[in-house]
Write a structure and sequence with these properties.
Layout: H1 15-22, H2 29-37, H3 41-50, H4 53-76
Helix pairs in contact: 2-3, 2-4, 3-4
Length: about 80
């Protein structure tokens, strides 16, 4: 696992943006985020809560893709 040196300083998101995305979270999203960031789910969650831009963007993509998949599958049933 490659360590990222600038985890805390590489762009920050606001508390409001973080809260909006947290409202869409579901079980397992932090596990997927951890896998995407090559770290533990706990470390991934901490990065996201701190406002790390990579963690925020990755979690936004994870949530959006999950929501789109669910909608797509529901429309096919």
């Amino acid at each position: 696992m490659e360590k990222i040196n600038n985890v805390l300083t590489n762009g920050l998101k606001s508390k409001k943006e973080i809260d909006l995305l947290e409202n869409r979270l579901q079980y397992g999203d932090y596990t997927t985020l951890g896998a995407a960031l090559s770290c533990s789910p706990d470390a991934a969650k901490k990065r996201f809560i701190r406002g790390n831009i990579e963690a925020f963007n990755a979690l936004d993509r994870i949530i959006t893709n999950r929501e789109d998949l669910v909608k797509d599958l529901q429309n096919k049933l």
